[in-house]
Amino acid sequence: AFHMVNPSPWPLTGALSALLLTSGLVMWFHFQSLTLLFIGIISNLLTMFQWWRDVIREGTFQGHHTPVVQKGLRYGMILFIVSEVFFFAGFFWAFYHSSLAPTPELGGCWPPTGITALNPLDVPLLNTTVLLASGVSITWAHHSLMENNRNHMIQALSITIILGIYFTALQASEYMETSFSISDGVYGSTFFMATGFHGLHVIIGTTFLLICLLRQIQYHFTTTHHFGFEAAA
Question: What start-end ranges are recorded for coiled-coil regions in this protein (predicted)?
């Protein structure tokens, strides 16, 4: 019942490509050099492609993802989500710690003196609406899959992916409009770290859902065997 995974190089290459990617970002920020960043992006994409290929082969064509294995994968996903909650809790903690009792160095006010905050009723409100709409469409996709309604599943998943891309574009435009940067004290660092990592999660999630769409078009998912979609959603 259990699937003993064959030795795989992809966790190692994934970790190394992530190191190259983050190091490349640092090189780009400080020295305007894109070489290491491009190497990290290419190695990351190659790892993603080959790792997905192996997982699809094991789960869809070789039948290794039995109900017992799927239960283990679900437990792993739950633990990952818990770790994500604490990850973002740290950023919110930093924000509230600084904003609820501003120090004299910040001017005794929040936002700090010299910082012009974004209007929360402008692009941020639109982005929130887009996220809520994507939650509705991905739920529609899941229900359609459970009811074996292939066309509705593809339509709903396509809408979700479009909304994810739209959200990313809106956040990029929002970043270009800000009058402050990540180096502008605690306000800039907490704002860009929290929203930046959230945007990164949206990009990764959109990529995963795009793979799920391609798999659905190829008839990989059934009403009882679709954990890959559930994890991505």
Answer: none
Of the listed ranges 1-10, 19-28, 142-151, the least confidently predicted one is: 1-10
pLDDT greater than 90 at residue 23: yes
Q: Is the pLDDT of residue 60 over 90?
A: no
pLDDT reported for residue 3: 66
- Domain of 12? 1-64
- Helix residue spans in the chain (DSSP H): 10-31, 35-56, 67-100, 123-146, 150-177, 185-217, 227-232
Looking at the fold, whether 120 and 58 belong to one and the same domain comes out as: no
Nearest to 134 by CA among 226, 206, 196: 206
Residues 150 and 221: beta-carbon distance below 8 Å: no
Q: Which two tokens stand for residue 74?
A: 């679900």
Which pLDDT value is given to residue 62?
Answer: 85
The pair phi, psi for residue 145, each rounded to 5°, is: -65, -40
Q: How far is the C-alpha of 85 from the C-alpha of 59, rounded, in Å? A: 28
Q: What is the phi/psi pair of residue 180, to 5°? A: -125, 165
Q: Which amino acid is at 151?
A: N
Same domain, 213 and 149: yes
DSSP state of 105: G
**pLDDT digit string (tens) for 101-150?**
888 888 888 888 888 888 999 999 999 999 999 999 999 999 999 999 99
* CATH number of the domain bearing residue 130: 1.20.120.80
